[in-house]
Specification:
Keywords: Coiled coil
Number of helices: 2
Largest sheet: 2 strands, antiparallel
Structural class: mainly alpha
Low-confidence stretches: 137-146, 148-170
Number of domains: 2
Helix content: over 70%
Strand content: 5-15%
Shape: rod-shaped
Amino acid sequence: MMSHVMHPRDVAAATDATFQGLADDRYALLSQQLFTHQGLIAKVNYGSRRLMELATELAHGKGRVKHLEGEVTDLQRRLAFVELEREESRKENEALKVSAKEAADAAEEAQMDFYLDGFDDCKQMPTFQRLTSDASFLVRQHLLLVPLPSTWIRLRVLPRLWMSSVACPL
């Protein structure tokens, strides 16, 4: 039996072709892996860079939140102060209203005392009977003429004073 013997040049060409094919396949695989690894490295680099950017933005955001919380606290303090001032103003206003009412009541009482004192003086006058009859008519009409210098003013007669309130020229 005779075996087929190849020429060394044929052997070298066949071997080179096989190794070239294997080398091409291996090269394609290596380049794909290298591209993938480079892509991953690029992605990792971009990701870490982006992560740092996001961390910086987060830190700025936290700082902004702290700043806004401070502003909210300041506004709440100002609102409480304004509400306190408003309450104090309301109380002062109430006190002024009460004081004004008391002053008006005191003035009315003083005016009535003045007119009643004048009436007591009128009782001593001889024309009292005539004035009393005129006054009873005015009282029935719920009106009273009060003398002031050169003027007669009409006032509503208070029911509790109807008997003691009469017109009396001074």
